[in-house]
């Protein structure tokens, strides 16, 4: 079953408008559905907490990756599944702070007939659990292509196992009050696994580049010695090591409480530069 609705959005001088209530009023009382909202011409949609707009302009506090011409939301019993504290906002496209005269939201609602005929069940429950998890992943910043690849992957991965376990668990309990918190926890786990996978891929590239570099003739180092006097942050020190590697500095000398090899945080932020840049540690700058 497919329905189309339109929602009139009044103009505003604030550069944004909360249209959540108008959107909810346009939804039919179906048990489970997927609603796709298209923004008025010249505008964008975002799922964010409007309270953050009190901090600063929408263009600064609302990440652009959260803006889009369309937003898809799962619907349960006539109400959309929204991320915690989030509302559906219409934002000006070109200048988020400029006033606009209003427009029309186009709402497309899709629900399979079996979902309309049953409150629970394997088919409807699975589709609804998937929709809840997709919503939580999108709220966490997951790329739509990565989520699609996760759902269609032929080879199992840690992230796909978490996804499948969640869907199987909640397919039989789609109306439980704990569904949305569980979807957020599963999404958090999946996003962590996504980051681990990206870090592993980056490590492979770094190691591969190091192997390639090993076969090249290394240029002589410049006669530049960097002395780090009580630099507390391991992240800053790692950045300095990377810069020293790029500039072919002769040596990096760490002094006092400056983090120095071996240090797990330093190894993580230096990206292998601590292996390629000569370094030593001294108790004081005078001793160095």
UniProtKB/TrEMBL annotation:
Keyword Transferase listed: yes
Matching InterPro entries: Alpha/beta_knot_MTases, rRNA_Methyltransferase, SpoU_MeTrfase, tRNA_m1G_MTases_N
Keyword Hydrolase: no
UniProt domain tRNA/rRNA methyltransferase SpoU type: residue ranges: 224-285
One GO term (biological process): RNA processing
Single GO MF annotation: RNA binding
Keywords: Methyltransferase, Transferase
Name assigned to this protein: tRNA/rRNA methyltransferase SpoU type domain-containing protein
């Amino acid at each position: 079953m497919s329905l189309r609705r339109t929602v009139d959005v009044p103009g505003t001088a604030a550069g944004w408008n909360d249209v959540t209530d108008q959107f909810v009023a346009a939804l039919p009382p179906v048990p489970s559905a997927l609603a796709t909202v298209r923004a008025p011409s010249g505008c964008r949609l975002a799922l964010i907490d409007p309270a953050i707009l009190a901090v600063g302009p929408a263009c600064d506090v609302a990440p652009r990756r959260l803006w889009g011409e369309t937003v898809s939301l799962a619907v349960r019993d006539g109400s959309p599944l929204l991320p915690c504290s989030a509302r559906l906002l219409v934002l000006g496209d070109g200048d988020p702070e400029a006033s606009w005269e209003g427009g029309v939201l186009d709402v497309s609602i899709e629900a399979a007939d079996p979902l309309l005929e049953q409150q629970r069940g394997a088919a409807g429950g699975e589709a609804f659990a998937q929709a809840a998890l997709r919503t939580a992943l999108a709220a966490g910043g997951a790329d739509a292509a990565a989520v699609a690849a996760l759902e269609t992957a032929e080879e199992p991965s840690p992230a796909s196992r978490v996804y499948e376990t969640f869907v199987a668990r909640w397919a039989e309990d789609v109306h439980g009050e704990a569904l949305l918190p569980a979807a957020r926890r599963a999404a958090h786990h999946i996003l962590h696994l996504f980051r681990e996978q990206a870090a592993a891929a980056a490590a492979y590239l770094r190691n591969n580049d190091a192997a390639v570099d090993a076969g090249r003739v290394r240029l002589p180092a410049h006669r530049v010695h960097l002395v780090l006097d009580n630099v507390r942050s391991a992240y800053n020190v790692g950045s300095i090591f990377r810069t020293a590697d790029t500039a072919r500095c002769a040596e990096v000398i760490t002094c006092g409480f400056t983090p120095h090899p071996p240090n797990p945080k330093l190894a993580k932020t230096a990206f292998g530069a601590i292996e390629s840049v000569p370094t030593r540690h001294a108790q004081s700058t005078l001793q160095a």
